[in-house]
From TrEMBL:
InterPro entries: DNA_pol_delta_4 (IPR007218)
Gene Ontology CC: delta DNA polymerase complex
Protein name per its UniProtKB record: DNA polymerase delta subunit 4
GO terms, biological process: DNA synthesis involved in DNA repair; DNA-templated DNA replication
UniProt GO molecular function: DNA-directed DNA polymerase activity
Region (Disordered): 1-35
Length: 105
């Protein structure tokens, strides 16, 4: 059976003793973050319309086809896709022909 000396016993108690706070704890001030909560990407109105078309499953799946093909298919099926999408894709310019998910899925 192990015996402890008085000095060894005091060292063990000191080792396991928790430090006590100074009484009432003071709440730490939380500094205001200077970061922005701006979560919306900066897209122009045209790109936003095309992205909404890509995300709308009412016009059928968009994987594996470009926006114009999807618009034409939806039109043939009588799903009434927005004419604005056809106009934007046919106009070219800086708007993309490919679906939002092209190369991501």
């Amino acid at each position: 059976m192990a015996t402890t000396t008085k000095g060894g016993d005091m060292k063990m108690k000191g080792f396991y003793r928790q430090k006590k706070g100074s009484g009432v704890s003071k709440s730490k001030k939380i500094s205001a973050s200077h970061g922005s909560l701006h979560l919306k990407d900066d897209f122009d109105k045209q790109e936003e319309i095309l992205r909404q078309f890509d995300m709308n499953m009412a016009y059928g799946p968009c994987i594996g086809m470009n926006r114009l093909n999807r618009w034409e298919r939806a039109n043939k099926l009588g799903l009434n896709p927005p004419k604005e999408v056809e106009r934007l894709v046919n106009a070219g310019g800086k708007v993309g022909v490919e679906c939002l998910w092209d190369g991501r899925v």
